[in-house]
């Protein structure tokens, strides 16, 4: 066996092993849906800065700001990363809601697509509560939700039902309304 053939038989398998390992160990490009979830999470975090909850005025800074999630959705995990950040000078707590009786403890409620069959019941239960509702359910804002995520040409856009926000008693800043499409 000549030296070049021997060298080739040792080098090629070694290189192939390194290529396979590099493909496994190197960070993979983010899936488009992962990026969309992170964008929605960033929006939700920023909503806390541009919405006022009058019922919270005077509450102690130690009392947590609750972002709740109802249903199963990939955003729940990403929202969990907001824990230990602050909203309105208060620590954020992300809570999974399983029982509709716990809705009153939420400041912001993300309603997963899995809950679309119960949407009318959830929104009715929230009547009179200062809870901001957010979802990417189709036509969410037009169906009585407050803030809807809409994907348009691979961009996440925001729609706001200002009437619903007013009825809930929360105050949306002009800056938030500037970036959103207002719907009824």
Keywords, please?
single chain, alpha/beta, Rossmann fold, 8-stranded mixed beta sheet, 6 helices, 24% strand, globular, disordered N terminus
Low-confidence stretches: 3-29
Fraction of residues in helix: 25-40%
Individual helix count: 6
Q: Strand order within the widest sheet?
A: 3-4-2-5-6-7-8-10
Task: State the major sheet.
Answer: 8 strands, mixed
Number of strands: 10
Silhouette: globular
Q: What is the alpha-carbon Rg in Å?
A: 23 Å
Overview of the molecule:
- It is a single chain.
- This protein is globular.
- Strand 3 (about 85) and strand 4 form a beta hairpin.
- The longest helix has 23 residues, at about 5-25.
- It has helices spanning about 5-25, 30-50, 75-80, 120-125, 160-170, 175-180, and strands at about 50, 65-70, 85, 90-95, 110, 130-135, 145-150, 155-160, 170, 180-184.
- Strands 3-4-2-5-6-7-8-10 form an eight-stranded mixed β-sheet. Strands 1-9 form a two-stranded antiparallel ribbon.
- The chain has six helices and ten strands.
- Mean pLDDT is about 85; it is low at about 5-30.
- With about 180 residues, it is an alpha/beta fold.
- It has one domain: Rossmann fold (3-Layer(aba) Sandwich).
Task: Offer a quick outline of the entry.
The protein is α/β, with parallel strands linked by helices and 184 residues long. The model is unreliable at 3-29 (pLDDT under 50). Helix content is 37%, strand content 24%.
